[in-house]
Design goal:
mainly beta; globular
């Protein structure tokens, strides 16, 4: 059974940092493309960042250099490092790979 499990969401102050993790079970996220999306209350889910099989990364414009994506091959995990967090970053963050999605982890940024 394939599962993607996100963790690392938390309540953080404006300007703070968080690192989200996405671990794959039954799926190799070390080499397959992985994307991060987010959904805020009352809004549509939107793309945040991605890393492809060649480790090329792309980011949504609103990231503005604040976020990075990386892989831990030993842990079969993809990370989303988020710095300089803003109130608008408050959302549930999801990772996905191929047709599989995790259940999300909540990020709340307090002003």
């Amino acid at each position: 059974q394939v599962q993607l499990v996100e963790s690392g969401g938390d309540l953080v102050q404006f300007g703070g940092s968080l690192r989200l993790s996405c671990i794959g079970f039954g799926i190799n996220v070390k080499t397959t493309p992985v994307a991060w999306h987010r959904q805020a209350p009352g809004k549509q889910r939107e793309f945040v960042a991605g890393i492809d099989s060649s480790n090329r990364r792309n980011f949504a414009d609103f990231v503005k250099g604040r976020f990075t994506v990386s892989r831990d091959y030993a842990k079969n995990t993809v990370y989303l490092q988020m710095n300089s967090l803003e109130s608008d970053d408050t959302a549930t963050y999801y990772c996905s790979s191929r047709q599989y999605w995790g259940r999300g982890t909540q990020v709340t940024v307090s002003s």
